[in-house]
Please model this.
Amino acid sequence: MSFNKDKPPQIDRVIRSNRTSFGLEIKPDGSLLVRAPKHATQAQIQSVIAKKAAWIERTQERLAKQYPILRPKSFTPGETFWYLGQRYPLQLTDRQRPSLELDGAFWLSRAAQDSARDVFIAWYRAETRAITKNMIHVYTKRFGFSVNKVRITSARTRWGSCSGKNNLNFTYRLCMAPLDTIEYVVVHELVHLKIRNHSKAFWKAVANIVPNYQGDRDWLKQHGAFLTLD
Model:
């Protein structure tokens, strides 16, 4: 990922919204995400990239050293899978039901091995839904948040999101993280129901509920790339 001053960094994705400033995000795989105002021109975007080229290069090089090349799961015995911040080995069982169960290890029915990925995703979806539902119930009752709907998605790069209609979305991968980290993500999106940006007021509101949220952000930055089935 060496930097060529005559060739600006490659932009992998641009997200436009009703924001007034630009935001740059480097994903664990080194891809560059640009968040831009809705009417920003391509020239304005490229100007921002040019000014931040050195930072982009340093960040991409650091991530390339930090994260190995991840291979998709093969769903074979002994392979490990994350749940609540811990890794558990996969074992096969002749039992037919349930197709997947966690009991010191992930026990997968041999009959379901050909559809193992779908089985795991369904299991993770159910766990994430149950965990986030309980947390949302507690915090809406305590702090008066108003939530419309909650969806569990297959998002690959976002842990959670909040829509203008007060809908909350969480990726099924979220339950792979520790419980405290899940709590931070839930609170993060709940606070967005009242503060739709990442201003100082937003982070102060998050800290009032989860004072140690920075540790959870750091955990996701360090381990987030590994919380996947792909």
User: Anything to note?
Assistant: Confidence is low (pLDDT under 50) at residues 1-5. Helices lie at 42-51, 53-66, 116-143, 179-192, 200-209, 213-223. Strands lie at 13-17, 23-26, 32-37, 80-83, 86-93, 100-102, 106-109, 150-153, 160-162, 168-171. The CA atoms of residues 95 and 109 lie 6 Å apart.
